[in-house]
Every structure is written in C-alpha cells, then in structure tokens.
Amino acid sequence: MDRTEMTEEQINDLIISFLTNDISDNEMIALEKWIKSDSANVEFFNHCLEIWLIGGTKKELNEFNVMSSWELMKTRMTKSEVTGKGNKKRMIIRYIRIAATWLIFFMLGFAAFYLIRQPAEIMPRPVIIEVPLGAKGSIVLPDGSKVWLNAGTKLVYDENYGRKTRSLDLSGEAYFIVAGDKMHPFFVNTAELRIEALGTKFNVKSYPEEPSIMTILEEGKIDIHIRENKKGTGEIVLLPNEKFIYQKLSGSFEKQSGQNAKKNESLKALRKKTFPAGIIEKNINTELYTSWKDKRWIIQGETLDNLAPMLERKYNIQIEFRDDILKYYSFTGTIENETIEQILHAIKHTAPIDFELKRDTVILAVDRDTQDQFKQITKPDTH
C-alpha cells in the first residue's frame, strides 16, 4: 500500500491497528513509510501514541513512565500472540520491530511535547516579603539593591527578578538604594503610580488606607508615571531633595445628590485644579521622611492627625480621638527606643492631652485641667 494512495481514514485505521496490536506486516511497512515521509506525520503519530498511552495507563503526563507503559504494550502483544495469530517466530520479529519504532518515535515525541508545553505551565513564582505591624526590616535584592521596609509593608517580585527586568510591587512604605544597571531599569509599582529609576536613593510611602502617595528623592533621578486608568494621567520627573505627593481622587463624589452633591463637586473640582497629578515640593529636608528606617526617627511639626497612623504601625496599636481638636496639635521630637507610653507622656508636655492605654488601644482626650494653660502658649493649627 503506497502512502500517496492512502486516505486520512486509511492512515487512522493503520494507527489504530498498530495501537491495538492488530497490524499486519504489510500494514506495518506502510505505516513506517508514512511516518518517515514527513515530520508532521511523526508529530501526529506521536500525538496518537500519547493519547493512547495516557488513556491506557490512566496516568497524568507528568507521571508517565516510558518503560512501564512499554511493559503494558508487551503484555497486550503477548495476549494477542496467545490467540494464535501467525507464526510465533514471525510475531516475535515483528514485535521487536514495533518496539524499536515505537520507543524511538515516542521518546522523541514525548520530549518535544514536554518541552513545548512546560514553559506555559511553569510561571515565575512570586517572592513575597511582608513586614508585620510593630516591626521594620531590610533586604538585599538579587541585583544588590537594598530595601528598607516599614511596618505593615508588603513587597512582591518574581523569582526571575533582574534577568530581564527589575520590577517590584509595593504596598506600604519602603526606602530604596538602587544598584546601577542601565540595561535593566528599576521599577516600583503601586496601585496608582509606576516609579522608574536607574541608580538612586528614594522613599515611597503608599499605604492603601491613606489618601495620598508620597515619594521622596535623596539622590539621582526618578520618573513617576501615573497609570493610564487613573485620573490625572501624566509623567513627573523628580530631582534630589524633592517630594511628590499624589492625591488619590475618590469617585464617591459622583454618588452624592442635592446640596451635598454641589458641595462635593466643587471640592472635587478644586482638588483637580490643585492636584492635576499631584504636587511637588522642592528643597525639602529628606531626613524627616526617611529617618523612620534609622535608630533615630526624627519628627518635626507633625500634626497628631498625621502622626497617629505612624505610631499605630510602629507600635501595632489603635489610636482613638475623643476630641477632634487634638488632631490639629503638632509635635516635634526624636524617637529612638521609647515605648508608646513614654511618647504619650512626651506629647502631654506639648499639648493639653490626656490619654488612656487599654491593651492595644490608646484613647486621646482633651485634658481640661491644662487646656487653659496651653491656650496661653499655643493654638492648634486648624487650617
């Protein structure tokens, strides 16, 4: 039977006959010619073998064993031989020929099958680093870049980091000293921003629960890309000693009605005008924003409203204000190894504050006994 005369149905019949060990010598010769005539035929034949073997052994591909499956094939051949098909000597010779052909083609086909499919199945695994509340930490990335992580921070990158790209996903606050590598730009991704740097020192603060994202540049240069699916798209270039604040615009304004709707729409318009993509402050003291990673945390003119969440993360506590007026008092100082109670006592010397500490909750209230005394010294900034 010449292969050029065979139809698709005849080819399928030959393969089925081979797989079920019901193939004659002439059919075997025809099948071998057809297989060897074209690489596509080899691929199709091996594919049929794979399907038959997986179904016959009831095993998954990654558990498949060539030799054990061949033993199964020989067992089927032996059963066929017992039924009395042909001369025993001819049958043995034929089975050896089938074995050689089958093993060579199958093993080549299986290798190709495995190599083609394996990359699609094995995705780069993520490396996840999380720093709990009440702690801070630091790591060295595979490229030599150093990262300090503040409390409640999560950093994610994949195991192929540095091979083609250097990309990190950040939720929280981190300080970076980036190893220089012009061939592989360094990216920090937050939900709203994509920050690119080549070799530089900078700080990114992007906690999901806070209304803004803050980026501080100490050395070098960074490009800040505002993601296209966010309002106020664009690109900002930050230079040393500059601070960029990106305000997260909430869509909740659009869901209001009546007087509140008009008021909120006006506020929304004002925020858009004031913060089209954020604001940049120049000539800042970067140490005030990066010293959290050091032994001495420097605080200068920070309102208790802003300071409270920092203390909550640092000491893993909750702070409640019974009197909102306290949020506007500012605090300046240096924190090293003080406990939260020591810090609260220090704050009492700068504002009329009384505090109550219940397990992991701090309750702040106005100290009526010292309120008048502090009014004569200073007034809270409520603007």
Topology at a glance:
Elements: H1 8-19, H2 25-36, H3 39-57, H4 66-82, H5 88-121, E1 126-131, E2 137-140, E3 146-149, E4 153-158, E5 166-177, E6 186-189, E7 193-197, E8 201-206, E9 212-219, E10 222-226, E11 234-238, E12 242-247, H6 258-274, E13 279-281, H7 287-290, E14 297-303, H8 304-315, E15 318-321, E16 330-335, H9 340-348, E17 353-358, E18 361-366, H10 368-377
Parallel strand pairs: 5-6, 15-18
Antiparallel strand pairs: 1-4, 2-3, 3-5, 4-5, 5-8, 6-7, 7-10, 8-9, 9-12, 10-11, 12-13, 14-16, 17-18
Helix pairs in contact: 1-2, 3-5, 4-5
Assembly classification: single chain
Low-confidence regions: 54-70, 80-86, 88-97, 104-121, 250-276
The major β-sheet equals: 13 strands, mixed
What class, by secondary structure content? alpha+beta
What is the radius of gyration computed over CA atoms, rounded to a whole number of angstroms?
36 Å
Q: Tell me what portion of residues adopts beta-strand conformation.
A: 25-35%
Distance between the termini: 96 Å
Total number of helices: 10
> How many strand segments?
18
Please estimate the helix content.
25-40%
Order of helices and strands: HHHHHEEEEEEEEEEEEHEHEHEEHEEH
Integer average pLDDT: 75
Approximate shape: elongated
